[in-house]
Design a protein that fits this description.
Helices cover 38% and strands 14% of the residues. It has 281 residues and is α/β, with parallel strands linked by helices. The strands form two sheets. Strands 4-5-6-3-7 form a five-stranded parallel sheet, with helices on both faces. The protein has a two-stranded antiparallel ribbon with strand order 1-2. It starts with 10 loop residues before the first strand and ends in a 39-residue tail after the last helix.
């Protein structure tokens, strides 16, 4: 049914001080934000994530992270830095990142985009298949140009020279263009470079350095929301957190070099659209 105000033109007449003009109709703004949300690639599981319904409990660092996330969304695009949410699985990092993304899209009408890091790399790799009629820059351009990008689960991807070069291109481009990015990661930002499960070892020193200038680091622990009973509440989360072992549990990694130096056989592989890059695993 056509809009009764603008007749689906997207413009409505207004009059002020005897001057008649047209402005964007509310129906146009609603359709725009709906389209922007659809294009943001938010997974179905997280499409209802909201800052107002994020459940907290007496956990100082968690409450602090939620407070800063709300301030970031309210002030966007004014914040000088993005966010890097770090902590063990299940504590709400992705929920919080997506809630900020949705809030910014709905309230500011900006172009937002969500990608799980492993899925992004998989999609980029698929462009090297001659049967796929998508160029790598068709995938990379929206990632590098989005007003707000969420890169989920940073560091979980299998490391290789190609992975590091590809991620460095994305992060460095957004860094140079001063575009806001929210990262989440399960890997602690420890100063011990010899730990193969620290953030710097997983993503490389160049990206790690950029992240510290691009983002506010919010590292926190907490109860695993996925283990909350169906009728559980704040008291249950607090009890789960207090009885949680005081250690981080991450996937077991195969022993060996932190970065596999994967190089295709002579004459194999396909150059990326930037220097130093070849399709790898």
């Amino acid at each position: 049914m056509a809009c009764t105000i603008c007749d689906d033109t997207g413009w409505k007449p207004v009059e002020a001080d005897g001057i008649r003009r047209v402005v964007r109709c509310d129906c146009w703004r609603g359709s725009l934000t709906t389209r922007l949300l659809d294009e943001a690639r938010i997974p179905p599981r997280y499409r209802r994530c909201d800052l107002g319904t994020f459940v907290t409990y007496p956990n100082e660092k968690l409450i602090g992270a939620v407070k800063l996330a709300r301030r970031f969304a309210a002030d966007f695009p004014e914040p000088r830095k993005g966010l890097c949410l770090i902590g063990p699985p299940g504590i709400g990092k992705t929920h919080l990142a997506v809630a900020v993304l949705r809030d910014v899209i709905l309230s500011k009408g900006v172009r937002g985009l969500f990608y799980d890091t492993r899925d992004l790399l998989r999609v980029i790799r698929s462009t090297y298949n001659p049967l796929v009629r998508t160029a790598e820059m068709d995938i990379l351009r929206p990632v590098m140009e989005a007003d707000l990008l969420v890169l989920d689960d940073l560091g979980s991807e299998k490391t290789s020279e190609w992975v590091e070069e590809t991620m460095n291109l994305i992060v460095n481009t957004r860094y140079n263009e001063r575009r806001h990015t929210i990262f989440t990661s399960n890997y602690e930002d420890t100063p011990d470079d010899t730990d193969p499960d620290c953030l710097k070892a997983r993503i490389g020193f160049r990206i790690h350095s950029r992240l510290h200038e691009m983002c506010e680091f919010l590292e926190f622990d907490g109860a695993d929301y996925r283990h909350l009973p169906p009728n559980g509440g704040v008291d249950d989360l607090l009890a789960m957190w207090k009885t949680k072992p005081n250690r981080r549990t991450l996937p077991v990694r195969a022993k060996g070099p932190i970065r596999a130096q994967l190089r295709p056989p002579e004459g194999k592989g396909r150059d990326l659209g930037w220097s130093g890059g070849k399709a790898g695993s």
